[in-house]
Amino acid sequence: MSKLGTLGARLHSGEIGYDFVGKRKIWYAVSILITITAILGLTVRGLNMGIEFQGGAVFTTEKTSISVSQAEEYAEEASGHDAIVQKLGNGGLRIQIAGIDTGKSDQIKQALSEDLKVDAEKINADLVGPSWGDQVANKAWQGLAIFMVLVVIYLAIAFEWRMAAAALVALIHDITITVGIYALVGFEVTPGTVIGLLTILGYSLYDTVVVFDSLKEQTKDITKQTRWTYSEIADRSINGTLVRSINTTVVALLPVAGLLFIGGGVLGAGMLNDISLSLFVGLAAGAYSSIFIATPLVADLKEREPQIKALRKRVLAKRAAAAAKGESLETPYTEDAYDEDEDPQDATPAVVGPRGQRAQPSGRGRGTRGRRR
Q1: How far is Cα 213 from Cα 237, in angstroms, rounded to an integer?
Q2: Cα–Cα–Cα angle for 240, 301, 8, rounded to 5 degrees
Q3: Cβ pair 193, 183 in contact under 8 A
Q4: What SS3 class is residue 93?
């Protein structure tokens, strides 16, 4: 078995683990800092909206020796508007100019033909009206809103409202970071960007639901035991699925990185940049939020419930009493780490430290095993 597989097995069994929930304030602070940076990027720089959203014309040429900077200068002189020029993989140019009509488009096409020394018949011009661009933008926002509502409803039914609320916060976090990165980097926002954004939201939910499902399973009849608090069980759920989340994220990021850095950067394929950046940033943010935001937030919300508060007090009181007797109850799960009056199948484990020690059961009815030697 590989080292990573061994690590995953040890995390899943509770032999080792990391206290994610216990350090949640650190993750919250980091997330808030990143989110504020993204919001500042949106406020200061704004989004570079594509033609599809603001209307204008896109001119595509055949292979030419004219540089991107020179083509931008020609396009701006011909149109009187700012122009965005991208080099295509076949050596041609994609020239995007916002805010022009059909009549102006013909004049610009003729001027570009002369400046770029390309036959006008070989320059393809696509026009997008501003009203159509507004319609695309509105539909995109409507689709995102409907997606969010459906997600919250599903999670509230399949799990509970606290998990639905935590997942919603994580999704908003992922959207804000991804959109903020677009503003800071200056990449163009196109329908491909919207597609990538919706894709990463689904992927983020996948990781979150996997952890929530484990947490739901491990917290059945949680109040019937006095070994573990809800937060500790939440830690166990995260650690148990950690390696799987890392593996799926890395496997998903590799081809997306190829699209972004090779397809978009080296080959100059503009549309690949639009969709691959949203996928790359969103996948990474989604994996982060599933581990460091969603589940710790659920634990925070659950710990406010009267029953869970009472359970926490009982657990801490029992540990204090055990410590006074020289016993230790703060251990990860092993086959005998449960109360004498509990069924072993009802015991709910949790990771409470970087490395566990084998649990020492109470000495009642079990000889002297329960006392530390």
Answers
A1: 9
A2: 5
A3: no
A4: strand
Residues with Cβ within 8 Å of 135's Cβ and at least 6 positions away in sequence, in order, are none
Report pLDDT for 135: 77
Half-sphere exposure of 107 (CA within 13 A, CB side): 10
Strand order in the sheet with 56-60: 83-87, 93-98, 56-60, 124-128
Sign of the C-alpha dihedral computed for residues 150, 156, 158 and 162 taken in this order: positive
CA separation for the pair 295, 21 (Å, rounded): 8
Which residue intervals of the chain are DSSP H helices? 3-13, 24-44, 51-54, 68-79, 102-116, 130-158, 161-185, 191-218, 230-257, 270-289, 295-302, 306-324
Would you state the pLDDT for residue 359? 40
Domains of the chain are 3-49+137-302 (1.20.1640.10), 56-128 (3.30.70.3400)
pLDDT attached to residue 102:
65
Q: How far is residue 208's CA from residue 202's CA, in Å, rounded to a whole number?
A: 10
Q: What end-to-end distance do the CA atoms of the chain give, in Å? A: 35
Quick one: pLDDT at residue 58?
84
Burial level of 2, CB count in 10 A (0-12/13-18/19+)?
exposed
Residue among 352, 252, 245, 229 at smallest CA distance from 292: 245
| Torsion-angle region of 95 (φ positive above 0: left; ψ -120 to 50: alpha; else: beta) | beta
- Specify the 3-state DSSP secondary structure of 56: strand
User: Within a 10 A sphere around the Cβ of 56, how many other Cβ atoms?
Assistant: 26
Which residue in 229, 224, 237 sits closest to 316, CA to CA? Answer: 229
> Which residues of the chain have a pLDDT value below 70?
1-16, 89-90, 101-102, 129-133, 263-272, 327-373
Q: What is the pLDDT of residues 324-354, one digit of tens each?
A: 877 665 544 433 333 434 443 344 444 333 3
Distance, in Å, from the CA atom of 312 to the CA atom of 352, rounded to the nearest integer, reads: 14
